[in-house]
């Protein structure tokens, strides 16, 4: 609830309570809210922590992470038993937090882990066969289906139904579904109606409607994006889709920058994509953005690149039409990375995965300007380069 809504709710009761009591209620409520919400970069009070998981492709493991709810600092938990030659990458956690699914890109399988109350993982049964080179994984909002891109030679997306009691996967009828060449990253919209996958080798986005586990190509799909189309992000209202094009060449005045972000309007009925006016959008400096994220309040789009020079791009979203406007201090020369970009479920902390430095950079960000500020002791080493990361809640 926003401060304004809270104040209005309290004032609505002024005929039943003395004005002084209403004022006290509002002040106390807002004071408490200010301790538990927001992402100003300096947090107060005690906020419950939560867990996250990250894959370690080089060692064939999944690492448990403990995140401090007040500071955002990461403490390493236990790893799963190493398994050679499977290269775990994408992972998805069932909303009930009972099962974690991991796509093994070299093993052509999906591992299922039981999640204990303390967050520790136990491998469940034999890994489920997938397509060739399973890369990214996502669970639909209903929690009934797991979708996995098969990146190497299959050129498709596998869809599995999830047994809610055992976590066992069963491939649905018609799966796998053709998704053009080299489908890599995958995204399902908040309503669960539409699915989008990037095809880096083609520079396009493949679009599907999704119902009862079945993927149906959207008319006009695939949609042109840009060279190397990779990372995807959608706003909470699913009006706008953003795609990172790391190899795109930009016209003046952005010719010194390699890579850009395509913005699309999403047709609410069909899921078809049409370019946002002014798309693609580029930073004034930087090279090769690969991962994207939108903050939970739909204020900013972050695009991240490897290294630390001009490595974090930040754009304000124009709410009326989805256009991106680079914020005043962007790009930020801070520790970045091209593996993933995630904001935690409460919208307080921003995490970036990097192969250089073998770890995760963590930031708070200013809710008004978008400026990121490094969390103390960031980046947090994971020993070997991480693959993908997912939060427990």
Structural features, described:
The protein has 393 residues and is mainly beta. The protein has helices spanning 3-11, 19-36; strands at residues 50-56, 61-67, 74-79, 88-93, 99-104, 109-115, 121-123, 128-129, 134-139, 145-150, 156-162, 169-171, 177-178, 186-188, 194-199, 204-211, 214-217, 223-224, 232-234, 240-249, 258-266, 273-275, 291-294, 300-304, 312-317, 324-326, 340-343, 350-354, 359-365, 372-374, 380-381, 389-391. It has a domain at 1-37. The strands form seven sheets. Strands 4, 5, 6, 7 and 8 form a five-stranded antiparallel beta sheet that branches. Strands 9, 10, 11, 12 and 13 form a five-stranded antiparallel beta sheet that branches. β20 and β21 (258-266) form a beta hairpin. α1 (3-11) packs antiparallel against α2 (19-36). The radius of gyration is 21 Å and the shape is globular. The model is unreliable at 1-44 (pLDDT under 50).
Short key terms for the protein model shown above:
393 residues; mainly beta; five-stranded antiparallel beta sheet; 32 strands; 40% strand; globular
What is the average of the pLDDT values?
A: 89
Q: Structural class of the secondary elements?
A: mainly beta
The total beta strand count reads 32
Kindly provide the radius of gyration, computed on alpha-carbon positions and rounded to a whole number of angstroms: 21 Å
How can the largest sheet be summarized?
5 strands, antiparallel
Q: Helix count? A: 2
Q: How much beta, percentage-wise?
A: 35-45%
Low-confidence stretches: 1-44
Which overall shape is indicated by the principal axes computed on the Cα atoms? Answer: globular
Instruction: State the end-to-end distance.
Output: 19 Å
Helix content: under 10%
């Amino acid at each position: 609830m926003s401060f304004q809504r809270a104040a209005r709710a309290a004032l609505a009761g002024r005929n039943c309570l003395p004005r002084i009591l209403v004022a006290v209620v509002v002040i106390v409520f807002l004071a408490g809210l200010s301790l538990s919400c927001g992402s100003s970069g300096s947090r107060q009070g005690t906020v419950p922590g939560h867990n996250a998981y990250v894959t370690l492709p080089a060692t064939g493991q999944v690492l448990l992470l403990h995140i401090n709810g007040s500071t955002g600092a990461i403490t390493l938990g236990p790893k799963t038993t190493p398994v050679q030659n499977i290269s775990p990458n994408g992972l998805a956690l069932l909303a009930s937090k009972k099962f974690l699914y991991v796509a093994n890109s070299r093993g052509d399988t999906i591992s299922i882990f039981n999640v204990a109350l303390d967050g520790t993982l136990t491998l469940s049964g034999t890994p489920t066969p997938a397509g060739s080179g399973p890369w990214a994984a996502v669970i639909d909002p209903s929690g009934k289906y797991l979708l996995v891109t098969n990146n190497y030679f299959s050129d498709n997306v596998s869809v599995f139904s999830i047994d809610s009691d055992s976590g066992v996967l069963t491939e649905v009828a018609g799966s796998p579904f053709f998704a053009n060449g080299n489908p890599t990253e995958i995204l399902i919209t908040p309503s669960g109606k539409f699915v989008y996958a990037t095809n880096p080798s083609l520079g396009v986005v493949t679009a599907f409607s999704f119902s009862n586990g079945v993927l149906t190509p959207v008319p006009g799909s695939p949609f042109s994006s840009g060279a190397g189309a990779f990372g995807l992000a959608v706003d909470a209202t699913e009006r706008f889709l953003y795609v990172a094009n790391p190899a795109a060449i930009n016209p003046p005045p952005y010719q010194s920058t390699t890579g850009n972000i395509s913005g699309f309007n999403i047709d609410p009925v069909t899921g078809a994509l049409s370019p946002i006016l002014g798309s693609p959008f580029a930073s004034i400096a930087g090279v090769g953005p690969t991962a994207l994220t939108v903050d939970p309040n739909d204020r900013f789009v972050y695009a991240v690149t490897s290294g630390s020079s001009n490595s974090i791009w930040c754009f304000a979203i124009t709410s009326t039409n989805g256009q991106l406007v680079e914020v005043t201090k962007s790009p930020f020369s801070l520790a970045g990375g091209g593996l993933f970009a995630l904001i935690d479920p409460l919208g307080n902390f921003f995490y970036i995965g990097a192969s250089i430095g073998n770890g995760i950079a963590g930031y708070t960000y200013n809710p008004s300007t978008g400026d990121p500020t490094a969390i103390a002791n960031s980046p947090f080493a994971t020993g070997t380069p991480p693959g993908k990361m997912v939060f427990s809640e």
